Predict the structure.
Amino acid sequence: MSHRVMTTTVHATRGWRAVPALALLISLAIWPLLMQQAGAEAATEAPEEVYALPPITVIDTETLLDRLKKERGKVVVVNFWATWCPPCVTELPEFVKLYRAYRDKNVVLVSASADHPDTLESRIKPFVAAKKLPFPVYVVGASSPDELGKALKVDWDGALPATFVFDGEGKLRKQWLEEITIADMERVIGPLMKGALTGEGSPAETASEPEVARAQD
Amino acid sequence: MTRCLSTRGILAAVLMGLAAAAMVGNFAAQAALESVAIGQTMPDFQLKDLDGNQHRLSQYKGKVIVLDFCSHKCPWSRGADPAIVELAQEYTPKGVVFLGIDSHRSTPVEEIKPYANEQSIPFAVLKDEGNVYSDKVGATRTPEIYILDTEMKLAYQGAFDNRKEPEQRGETNYVSKALDNLLAGEPVATPKISAWGCTIKRARAAAASEGSAPRSGS
């Protein structure tokens, strides 16, 4: 009898000991879910105030090209900038505006930093955080501008800032090798959005040559 | 399967067509600036240096010439200047002529002069008013180096070195390599190398899009 009681006690003790471990396991399992939900709530409640560092990814030319190909059917704006380029830094808020206003409207912003990947932790991340950039940043500084230009089929030699607009079919429609504003971009994007969404308007008919704007200040 | 293949075939054809269209667009875009191909003779110029002295490119014919499209407002160009100064000190005694060319719209001579003095730039810096010369030779970036052989033919165009950051010297100096080739009577191994840099702010485009949007000066 006493033997049986002992056993039960031991079992019970083991059982109780297992509780904290089990609780820990459960909480570990649902922790990401809880966090995700908290994040989602925060985002819906105060979208402008909560800032989280966006993904900042070091990529090569090929990966950038694949990334762009995935956006076919959408208007794609590619902006090349660098932390060391003063006019690029000046115009970044214009791209923040563009991103916020058009991200749900089939316009994709691809923000490409020409800073060297070696400076990811020391310079790029602190810079993105300080400027509170909300969009993902691709670090392409290890690729040669020549290679990037060829891949994108654009006439460009690495002078910054540089911004290119591609239509839904991936065709270059506008390039700026200068500092621009959201108004400059909207004039180009507006007509393209209709085409990108409805599939109307042959690119060859509507605008055969991309316009090139050279630098000014 | 057959259907799948043919769809792929059509897709490939469409993609090739798009690529071709993009190429056409590309050539159209290039027409905005003239350019000089490697091996072609560079057009002559007559430009004033910071002290008002006239320089013609053709007056240096017979020597290897380094043209450095520069801007003291560009961190990348400024960062390269100390190394360019050293290079000029090393190669001028070997008979190489160095000339700086500032085509930047927003940098008047009065602004360049104190900078050039402070950096002890040992060669003439010429002001290309209205970016006329950089338009003729297709220079779009600072720093952008053009090296001319003794017959004023373009032998190298592109980056100064392979630096990763404005202030950090590159391990490979493309200009000294090209100069060594030329001085040894050999062709330049890699005559065109692109690089990151700043856009030359041009006067010409400004009129075309005047009033389009407020811009902050730089």
Observations:
- The radius of gyration of chain A is 25 Å.
- Confidence is low (pLDDT under 50) at residues 1-16, 38-46, 199-208 of chain A.
- The longest helix of chain A spans residues 2-45.
- The helical segments of chain A are 2-45, 61-69, 86-102, 120-131, 145-152, 182-198, 203-206.
